[in-house]
Amino acid sequence: MPQVIVLGVAAGGGVPQWNCNCGICQQARRDPSLQSGQASLAVSADGRHWFLVNASPDLRAQVVATPALHPDPVHLRHTPIAGVILTNAEVDAVAGLLSMREGSPFGIWAPPKVLDTLAANPIFGVLPPDRVPRRALDMDAPIELPLPDGTPSGLSVEAFDVPGKVAWYLEGQAEAGGDTVGLTFRAGGRTVHVVTACAQVTPGLAERLRGADTVFFDGTLWTDDEMIRAGLGAKTGQRMGHVSMSGPDGSIAALASLDVGRKVFVHVNNSNPVLRPGSPERQAAEAAGWTIPQAGSAFP
């Protein structure tokens, strides 16, 4: 089945954020176990060749902290990273690509609108297409992921639209649809869904997730207005394209009856009290069958 390593748990800016003195960020500075880079996953069918889900700005440090992603010691230049699959064009999903410019071949897969965003920014030219080919992910069309030499990886991926929003720096420039996607990975008869950003759990999305072995889901906020109440921002979760964990329309309630084997929250904002072990919110999430992972957590 797909093997998954959580490289980063946090939403944009990580925990602690560089300029934030909220209670969680202060606590994380005192307690390194609460610290996390920005959300990214590594997925593999064989434990030797890995595909990243998004390339966070913290990618170099995440790779250094993850032995499975270290170069093979018999080679001067080597990486077990075979490719990167992008779910959106947000800064915290694509900026880490710039840390992968040292010459190793790998592939990039993304929805056409995300590839258009990369193509429109010349800085991504540091990843030349003869070494780092870019391939479009069509919605609802499973593909077998190849390794850089063309051999099968044993892992398939399928992209699907989820309710969301365009990257904030592109607002006003794009039409709806194709800006935020979820991913379904399959290997060995097992299924893993990854939905790192989602504005609403629609009936169609719920049915897609039903019966999955593992679901990694958008855990940005506990309540829709928590950033406003904390004085950290002026936007609600809905305005940012993120469904809350709690409440009758939240993700915990929406996924409660879907017979998912393992439910894991990722992309957790520094405002979210679920980050505090032992908090009432953490206890409620765990009682509902959810895991709040740490960087380095592995899911077979």
From TrEMBL:
Record has Transport as a keyword: yes
Keyword Repeat applies: no
Stretches assigned to the Metallo-beta-lactamase domain: 49-267
Pfam family, one: Lactamase_B_2
UniProt entry keywords in alphabetical sequence: PQQ biosynthesis, Transport
Stretch list, region Disordered: 276-300
Function: May be involved in the transport of PQQ or its precursor to the periplasm.
Annotated protein name in UniProt: Coenzyme PQQ synthesis protein B
Originating species: Rubellimicrobium roseum
Lineage, broadest ranks: Bacteria, Pseudomonadati, Pseudomonadota, Alphaproteobacteria, Rhodobacterales
